[in-house]
Design brief:
- It is a single chain.
- With about 140 residues, this protein is α+β, with helices and mostly antiparallel strands.
- It has helices at about 25-35, 50-60, 125, 130-140; strands at about 20, 45, 110, 120.
- The strands form two sheets. The chain has a two-stranded parallel sheet with strand order 1-2. Strands 3-4 form a two-stranded antiparallel sheet.
- Helix 1 links the parallel strand 1 (about 20) and strand 2.
- The radius of gyration is 18 Å and the shape is globular.
- The relative contact order is 0.11.
- Residues about 135-140 have low confidence and may be disordered.
């Protein structure tokens, strides 16, 4: 995806890139690609708000039909822990001196957690738990 750090490309024999349809950098990358090659980059739609959306859209784009997603909570634990202890996100959101990005704010909505209990979520993440058919049906009503 266009969120790949450029130095990662050197780690592999082959690398490709696809852009996320609703990312700020997509338009810029398309301009550069068009200037250099006369083509724009492949576009992966419906790739936000969470990484699971990107993974699902990418697999569908590649032609896979039977896709299983495991461990997708779409929220944070009530204690504030998020999806990865080794990510670029801060472990303590209130620590101004800690390096990293703050996670998106979660409000009072909850969803069942994949390891039991529940996770807190927000409207943006919550919509990703709705099957497409339910979303499409509600939009047509």
């Amino acid at each position: 995806m266009n969120t790949l750090y450029p130095d990662n490309v050197d780690r592999y024999k082959w690398a490709g890139i696809a852009t996320k349809g609703n990312e700020a950098g997509t338009f810029l990358l398309d301009l550069i690609a068009y200037q250099q090659t006369g083509r724009i980059l492949p576009l992966i739609p419906y790739s936000n708000p969470v990484v699971a959306n990107t993974a699902l859209s990418f697999a569908l784009y590649l032609g896979f039909k039977n896709i299983y997603l495991f461990g997708v909570d779409n929220g944070n634990l009530p204690c504030g822990s998020h999806h990865s202890k080794d990510s670029i996100y801060k472990k303590n959101q209130k620590d101004e001196d800690e390096q990293g990005y703050s996670c998106l704010a979660m409000d009072e909505k909850t969803l069942p957690g994949n390891l039991g209990g529940y996770v807190t979520t927000n409207d943006s993440f919550h919509i990703s738990t709705s099957p497409i058919r339910k979303v499409n049906k509600s939009l047509s009503e």
